[in-house]
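G., the chain you wanted modeled:
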Amino acid sequence: MAEHIIVTDEGATRIITMRRPEKKNTLTQDMYLAMSDAIDSAQSNPAIRCLILTGRSGVFTAGNDIGDFLKAATEAQDAGRPRNSVIFLHSLVNNTKPIIAAVDGIAIGIGMTMVVHCDYVIASTTTTFSSPYIQYGLVPDGATSLVVPHMVGHQRAFATLLMGREMSAEAAREAGLVNQIVPPGHAVVEAQKVARQICALPAEAVAISRKLLRPPTEDIERRISQENHFFGQRMRSPEALAAFQNFFARKTR
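Predicted structure as tokens:
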């Protein structure tokens, strides 16, 4: 596994923890692949009945490293090779086992995208969700343009995905994105309780019911591909390049 991804199996539950606290759990290319592998390897393991995705350190994740965006925008890329984040998203979408998000602190960009694809979400009172791609001249990712309006309605989705507005834990619960709000530091413990409840249910019935509840996987994957096409175009746009450069200029002041 990548240095900043910790994978532990506790009973029938696999816990995938993002652990890069000095960078607010911003995701590296290796971290994406490690999380993808942790999800994929659980699919063929009947002993794993449930997954938990968390950040533990008071931060879920600040999302992508803007430095990676700038590098991708300015260097020659293999157009036929998918971004590691897209590989991870496909693993998340094709996952067949219940997955719980234990969110404590910020969930930005792809951090919010991950949560959207989870089946049960526990957030601490300090949690905030945001998808600020528009501020960098980019577009939504991970089929959020399909799934989020379905979950929270067009108006809330517009404010979140198109205007980049932040959503508190309470607002996210009201919108239907969060199941349960807990004090800071308690998200993982509560997620483990929920996981035990899920693991006690008949496995095949859970798998079939979960599939019936979710949009068709092929629709989600199709939207990921559409978004990725536009995302790649936008990454090299003058708007995006200026936004990336402004970001680093602010950091050096």
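The first strand starts at residue 5 and ends at 10.

Shout if anything looks off.
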